[in-house]
Amino acid sequence: MSELQNLAEMNMLDASKCAFTPTEGGYISLKYEDKTFDRIKLCRALPYKTPDEYICIIDRDGKEVGILRDIKHLSKADEENVRVELTKIYYCPSITKIMSVKDRMGYQYFEVQTNGGKREFALRDASRNIRYVTSEKRGAIEIRDIDGNRYLIEDFDKIDVQSRKKIEAFLV
Amino acid sequence: MSEANKVTEDGILCHSEYDIDENGNICSGKTTLSVKNGIYMLEVGKDGAIPDFSYQVDTLKRLSIISNIGCATLEAEFKDGSSIRLCRMTQSCVKPLSEFIKVINYYLETGTMTEIKEEHARCPRCGKPFVADTQFCINCADKSSIIKKFISLGKQHIPSFLFAGLLVLLCNLAMLMIPVINRILVDDYLFPASEGLAPWGEINPYLAIVGLVLGMFGIYLIVRIVYILAARIQNKAGTSFMNELRIKMYEKIQYLSMSSISRRTTGDLIKRITEDTAIISDFLKTETTKIIEVGVVFFCVSVYFIVTRPILALFVFLPVPITMFVIFRFWEFIHRKYERQWILGSKANGILHDIIKGIRVVKVFGTEEKEIKKYDNASKNLAEIQAQNEKIWAILFPALGFVIGLGEFLILYFGAWAVLGESVIGPPMTVGELTQIISYTGYIYGPLRWMTNLPRSLADAITSMAKLTEILDEEPDIKDRANAVSPEIHGDIEFKNVTFGYKSYEPVLKNISLKIKQGEMVGIVGHSGVGKSTFINLVMRLYDVNSGSLLIDGTDIRDIEKQSLNTSIGVVFQETFLFTGSIYENILYARPDAPPEDVFAAAKIANAHDFIIKLPDAYNTIVGEHGYSLSGGERQRIAIARAVLRDPKILILDEATASLDTETERKIQEALQRLTKGRTTIAIAHRLSTLRNANRLIVLEKGELAEYGTHEELLRNKGIYYNLVMAQRQTTKMAKVNKQ
Known about the structure:
The complex is a heterodimer of chains A (172) and B (740).
Chain A: H1 3-7, E1 12-13, E2 18-23, E3 27-32, E4 35-37, E5 41-44, E6 53-58, E7 64-70, H2 76-89, E8 95-104, E9 107-114, E10 117-124, H3 126-129, E11 130-132, E12 141-144, E13 150-153, H4 161-168
Parallel strand pairs in A: 1-7
Antiparallel strand pairs in A: 2-3, 3-4, 5-6, 6-7, 8-9, 9-10, 11-12, 12-13
Chain B: E1 12-20, E2 26-36, E3 39-46, E4 53-56, E5 60-67, E6 71-78, E7 83-90, H1 91-110, H2 143-153, H3 158-175, H4 177-194, H5 205-255, H6 258-262, H7 266-308, H8 310-317, H9 319-357, H10 359-365, H11 368-419, H12 431-445, H13 448-472, E8 493-500, E9 509-516, E10 521-525, H14 532-539, E11 547-552, E12 555-556, H15 562-568, E13 569-572, E14 581-582, H16 583-588, H17 596-605, H18 609-614, E15 622-623, H19 632-646, E16 650-654, H20 662-676, E17 680-684, E18 696-701, E19 704-709, H21 711-717, H22 720-739
Parallel strand pairs in B: 10-17, 10-18, 13-16, 16-17
Antiparallel strand pairs in B: 1-2, 2-3, 3-4, 5-6, 6-7, 8-9, 8-11, 11-12, 14-15, 18-19
Helix pairs in contact in B: 2-13, 3-5, 3-7, 4-5, 4-12, 5-7, 7-8, 7-12, 7-13, 8-11, 9-11, 9-13, 11-12, 17-19, 19-20, 21-22
């Protein structure tokens, strides 16, 4: 650990000592060393860049228990439990196909196919709400609708040409 | 239960939707509140299936919506201490569901079922989402009703617009006469003259030619003059309508409550006042007459062609659908390209703005090269799209001109044959007739491009109208009740079980009950984000409480006239806002009818007078944007003077001295001490020493009232306040040691 990390009293959790268990009511708990934290909250520190790494674990009172370096370091069962909990908190359906984009009085109405089913949503100011997730301007694209829902195109270069054409003009 | 609630046959009182199932897939689910045999039931489950959860409402302690990322979860807390996640939903369902749970939570707190206001997540007519945070669907909004509303708003200008329209109509009819005169000139005087045939009989041909040319000149002259007149009438009406709209919007925004103002950005509101009104006014000024002009020309010329030369009409109209299609098709494309150019331009500007403003940071970290590269890229992208757009422009429009020209070629070709007597397009034609036909062809093609753009400009105008009507129709949620009173306010404040959240499902203050006595100084302490500023926002009635009540001198704050409340409250914020104007005007803002002596006295109490008179222009010094730059402490003291001048019964100090050095703070503290005497004062401060004069202290923790008492009492309790004091003492000690 660097001096800076020591100074900040960073608590990087040892994955081998973590046990994540689903609890009654649909929550998740963490047993770490000899302490149990009920109804913990998981939080991705770098949700776009490394969604599986640097997961902050926060207890019921909002205090940070520690940071998990990589969920892949956990046992298979624990990893699965963490993944299930993360999907409950982070909801960003992946768009697999854009069926139509219609402009109606300054609002763009989208009809898309996502990994969670068909969705219809509207955007205002499409050029500002469709953007590359990283500053390299390649790869994943995030779309935010007028209600604040998020949608992800995992790789813009890999989506079908028709879909790509429909939103290309909005991408800056 | 309120009588307004309708119970269906199966006992359902109200329901709300959720849309994500346990596997993260889209589903259609419902949360339902029903009453069976006098027992309230909450059921949660997918449409048409047996509910996943079914609870007696009385077993619940509270329902809450937990905001996640891109979704939210509905959670239930039971009286036995257990809790459960009931369902998940996208952001679109959060607002309607929060209304739903509000009803249940209110019942759980008070035992009464209130009136239920059902909200929809999507437009019930077309299923498309609503426009952000409204129940307004732009997709199936009744456009004609929006237009009608605008007509009624500007009804006093209708005669002007109609008169201008009539003038334009007459002008266009007159202009259609020019080709006719041309034909007479050619056919009756020029060509017959050359062939020695003189149909004019006694009239001198030269005189006739002079007469016809003068006639043409006369028509041109009169048409131009009438046009100018029509344009002036229209501009005048359009501009004054725009002015009225702007003022109406501005007035409306002034009276809207903080909650609806803060829902929108400052930029959005300014845009609605300036840009949207301008779009509507431009539409009225230019497009309405253009519609009349094009309509008249199209109608008359089409009738002329169809009646006299139906085959030629075919040639004239043949390129019309083609050009219409091409322009219409490409317009969208070009529009997007230009929009992109605009965004890239503003992005490049943004980088420039950022870097030049933050040049010190760049230099300190030595990242000049990185920043140069960043701007290089943005500038290059902009140049690329500019070049592309110019290329499109340069190719598309000449090409379209060519297609339109094709029709003219055909007319010229077949017309010439008809003039020579070998007509395939009906009866033979004279040279004059051919020139008339060619002129009319030009008349038709001219407005084509304009017509293809009409749907867009009409849509722009209607969108702007919809945006304006949204604000104009909005009822301010904080307004005087019919029976509001305006008592003389003394300054007793009481919170009775007050719960409030900017979003009703995320309460910031929970069940606060306390009394502040007249003349008392009360400090509010607590960590950042615990609801300190929210507390004073409620006292200032920038927002209304969600539940419970806030009493001023025993009267519910909602029953006191806003004007009377406003004149009794004075505020000093951490961020002092001085309007552009003189120091004198800025202080006077609090009480415009105050005599100069009062202004000076207020400045003296605020410890501001001494520094003001040392300025070259003293009280006339211009401050605010582009004005004289004052230090933070000086600005703060002017703000205090402003509050003093108001002579408020309730004084609110929101971190009034937080950003100042100790010496300035001491001066301001002195000023405040004089000011707070005899007034109810509520002060927020992080620096606890600022609150040493407070009679009592309110300690907030997670939106709840954690501790309330005098400094000594709270220290004795050894609770949150004690810890805060100890922590600050530690810091001060450390600072002292470091100094030594």
